[in-house]
Amino acid sequence: MFFLPFSLILLFIFLILLLPFFLFIIHIEIIRIALNKIGLSPSAAFFILLISLIGSGINIPLYTREATIFPQERNIFYLFHPFGVPKLHTEQVIAINLGGAILPLLLCIYLLPKAPPIPTLFATIISIFVCFKLSHIVPGLGITIPALIPPVVSVLCAFLFSPGNKIPVAYISGVLGVLIGADILNLPNLPPYPGIMSIGGAGVYDGIFLVGIISVLLT
């Protein structure tokens, strides 16, 4: 009787420690189900899932542009600069993420022959417009967009324009909506932050990969 509370505490701690592992397994299983719905075999789905997880940390540089840093602190050496603190010039690297952009684009190409052209075009244009309007540039973070709205928009467009063949339309419009509308169209408006600004690389997949997965699951 005296050991029961202690055992319950140990069990609770054990479950808390295993919770991230369970959430990771559920996350992987959801993506696997969505990839199977796209039409991929279990082995292909596992391979794509593995590449997406590894590729989320791989950014491929596209081009560089000048970035400027304005020093925030003013110390005693500031007195020796009568025309103000000199600006520090560095580079901003525009890159594309392997797991968050290139892989979803390859899946879009794979699904393109299965998607009706006109409905896919209309759904993609609407998704791009909505994502562009909802995206925001956050200093020091990059481009952000509400996570759940893009997949819902792509699914609604798929039901509206292609009720008989929803999955490829939902996936393609969802991925391209975020990739073009949120990331690419906002590149000219990005302030010259130093460092790497990755298309599809903010967060886990910048929402691009997961938007496509959620879009498939909702259809």
Question: Structural class of the secondary structure composition?
Answer: alpha+beta
Number of domains: 1
Distance between the termini: 52 Å
Characterize the main sheet. Answer: 3 strands, mixed
Report on this structure:
This protein has 219 residues and is α+β, with helices and mostly antiparallel strands. The protein has one domain. Helix content is 56%, strand content 15%. It has helices at residues 4-38, 42-55, 98-111, 117-134, 149-161, 166-183, 208-218, and strands at 59-69, 88-97, 136-138, 142-144, 195-199. The chain has a three-stranded mixed sheet with strand order 1-2-5. The longest helix is centred in the N-terminal third of the chain and has 35 residues, at 4-38. The model is unreliable at 76-85 (pLDDT under 50).
How is this fold's topology laid out?
Elements (H helix, E strand, L loop, with lengths): L3 H35 L3 H14 L3 E11 L18 E10 H14 L5 H18 L1 E3 L3 E3 L4 H13 L4 H18 L11 E5 L8 H11 L1
